[in-house]
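Async update (no meeting this week)

Hi team, since we skipped the sync, here's where things stand on the single-chain job. The sequence we agreed to prioritize is pasted below, unchanged from the tracker. I ran it this morning and attached the output directly underneath so nobody has to dig for it. Comments welcome in thread, and please keep replies under the output.
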Amino acid sequence: MRLRLTTLLATPLLLLVAACAMPVASAAPAQSPASGAPVPAQSYWPGQEELMKAGETVDIAGPRRWPDGYAGVAVDLPAGLLLVYRIPAADVDDEVRALVPQVTVRFVDVAYSARQLAAWNDQVGADTAWWQGRDVLVHGRYVRFGECVVVEVEHPQRDAARITAHYRGVPVCVEQGYPFVPLTAG
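Output:
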């Protein structure tokens, strides 16, 4: 039993040491052996820069051009995809594809736009002190793309019914939250 436990504990440590010993790319541009000119650094994922730029383009245009349908953007680097969260609409899909033809876009159907969720998120934020007066400690809140306003509280099982009842008609996901603990130097 002791040998098995030692093996279980030592194996991850050995893997970590082996991974740390592997060579990594330098942050500085490599030098071309023939000319001595800098060679641009390559990202870990092929096409990463292109996907990131396309995501930025869509994320800037989305709220302006499709405020009632756009919910957000993400990248799936291993699959080489730009994920666009939006309320389904064929014209939006066509416009997004035309905006970033250099990447493959996958559309994710959602129920709510970023604008709708942001307004509801602000409403929940404005009520934080009110909730604290009712013994509900809200540690945080954020928007989950197209789905809900996530409200992080100290006691989600106890408080979820009260919170969702208070925000009737607002998609609220009540989850476990933790207090903010700032990191200090030293």
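Quick observations from my side:
Confidence is low (pLDDT under 50) at residues 1-30.
The first strand starts at residue 30 and ends at 31.
Reply here if anything looks off.
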